[in-house]
Amino acid sequence: MSDFIPQEIILLILYRLPVKSLVKFTLVCKSWQSLITTSCFIDTHLAKTLSKPISSQPILIRRFTDSPKKEHYFLHLNHVSLDIFQTLKSPLKPRKNLYPRIVGTVHGLICLSDDIFGYTYRIVVWNPSLRRSIELPRPNITFDEVGPYNFTLGFGFDAKKNDYKVVRLVYVQSGDDRFHLLPPKVEVFSVAEKGWRMISGKGIECCFVEASWTQCFLNGRVHWIAYEKKMGGVKNWVLLFDMEDEKFRKMKLPESVVDVNPMKLFISVSSGKLTVFEYYGDAKNRFCNIWVRTEYGDVKSWSKLYGIDNDVLGGGGRVYGLTENGEVFLANSEGGGGLQSPEAFRSLFEVRRGELLLYDPRSRQSKVVQPQGVVDAFVVGDYTESLVLLNKESGATSYEGVKIEEKRESVNPESGEGTSNLVLEEDRSIISRNDAHEEEEDDNSPAFNDLVFQKMVNYSYQMMKFLNQA
Predict the structure, then answer these.
(1) Sheet of 233-242, strand order
(2) Is 235 helix (H, G, I), strand (E, B) or coil?
(3) How many other CB atoms are there within 10 angstroms of residue 421's CB atom?
(4) Strand, helix or coil at 149?
(5) Per DSSP, which regions of 263-421 are E strands?
(6) What dihedral do alpha carbons 444, 448, 453, 454 form, nearest 10°?
(7) CB atoms < 10 A from the CB of 344, how many?
(8) Low-confidence ranges of the chain (pLDDT < 70)
(9) pTM for the predicted model, two decimal places
(10) CA pair distance 90, 99, nearest whole angstrom
(11) What's the rounded Cα separation, in Å, for the pair 314 and 339?
(12) What are residue 358's DSSP bridge partners?
């Protein structure tokens, strides 16, 4: 083909092809494999993809069913064609057969953490389009080292170094009073450096609600909802972490949510804009205000986009995000929506189920996107398919226990015909029977169960602190 078409034209064509096609093309010949797996090609292809309208990009959805206990991942074609989707297989099997936390997504990578139901240190960076992932090494700060703690994670991209990073803030518990020491201990994992390193957390006076923290990545920064303890209450902020200079900063929230219960606030990015969901109501009636920051650098640009009524959410529904044309992804569920009483507090530990809906606030019409699942486990977000982690330098491996071997190279690039065969073989280097057996023993060991119990005690205490502010 190169004898008839200039190399520059071939590159322009390849840059515009989907990831699935390019992965197949790496098996055509060695020269194409070398080209497509270079960092330069991967970065240029990503830049072309990011230049496309958000509405043309896929939507990532995670659903978890509690009977049977099973996690499902889907890539829906785009904002318009939600009925067309493909299923994905996660590389992380959570302990107790539950579901992991989806920390965030950046450039086709998804960061997963198996920390919701106990003290664990399993964090995975996953590219579902390539079926490749990296499992991070054990962090520096652990329960064995510091005892009980709360922590939060952030995932983002350092454009200056072309590197993907995970930041971890650990709030060590102070004695028996359940308060946590400030500033937190902070460590950063770099995909390029392949390791954790400590950085300074000096100046951080904000805390997180660990049971329900959310984060998002926008304009080179990770964003969290955080709060500072004040006399008689709290003051809420958006805490920022810049992936390039690795410094923390604060951003103001809408004035009306500054002193509300921080457990009622969730942060996200919808159609490229910073979005905050504010919940209010009681255990039977739940409402949600959706705030959007229309101009990222202007604190005065926060505006209330919608108010979602209790007849849409029920007592325990959730809002997950917005489409580019203003429709809302949400789940409707009864019960468990408030913190106004001990009974309502106990309802937080009940499983709430509902269908994932796409709701139009203008027409007040909705349609089912995914069938019934656990409300707190649903995740919806824009997704960008990419070749990130395809190059060998990333250290990523197949997460399905298979490897692809090219048996022959006698493929004619012009016709696409030949005798090359793809053979899928079990890769025993990824996981052995002994490893799997040890993992099962860890899940059921008294020590692990004690850690789960300790973490749930911490969760409960932290949530009870906010009962008077609900």
Answers:
(1) 215-218, 221-230, 233-242, 248-251
(2) strand
(3) 10
(4) strand
(5) 265-270, 273-281, 286-293, 302-308, 318-322, 328-331, 353-360, 365-374, 379-382, 397-398, 402-406
(6) 180
(7) 19
(8) 1-3, 175-179, 283, 335-350, 399-470
(9) 0.83
(10) 10
(11) 15
(12) 329, 367
Q: Which two tokens stand for residue 81?
A: 């064609």
Q: Identify which of 393, 379, 378, 382 has the alpha carbon closest to the alpha carbon of residue 164.
A: 393
Element (H, E) at 49: helix 39-50
Which amino acid appears at position 409 of this protein?
E
Which position has the token pair 């486990």? 377
C-beta separation of 18 from 52 below 8 A: no
**Torsion angle, CA of 291/294/300/304, rounded to 10 degrees?**
-30
At 25-81, the pLDDT tens digits run: 998 888 889 999 999 999 999 999 999 988 888 999 999 998 888 999 999 987 777
DSSP 98: -
Phi, psi dihedrals of residue 33, rounded to the nearest 5°: -60, -45
Backbone φ and ψ of 94, nearest 5°: -70, 155
Helix (H) or strand (E) holding 310: helix 310-313
Q: Tokens at residue 163, please?
A: 């590197």
Length of the chain: 470
Q: Give the tokens for residue 133.
A: 């992932």
If phi over 0 gives left and psi between -120 and 50 gives alpha, with beta otherwise, what is residue 203? left
Nearest alpha-carbon partner for 115 in 466, 440, 457, 456: 456
Cβ atoms within 10 Å of 332's Cβ, excluding its own: 22
Bridge partners of 395? none
Name the nearest CA neighbour of 191 among 161, 220, 150, 232: 161
Q: What sign does the CA torsion over 453, 459, 462, 464 have?
A: negative
Instruction: Look up tokens 């302990």; give the residue.
Output: 95
Q: Are 195 and 140 in contact (CB under 8 A)?
A: no
Choose among 237, 160, 146, 235: nearest CA to 192: 160
CB 251 within 8 A of CB 295: no
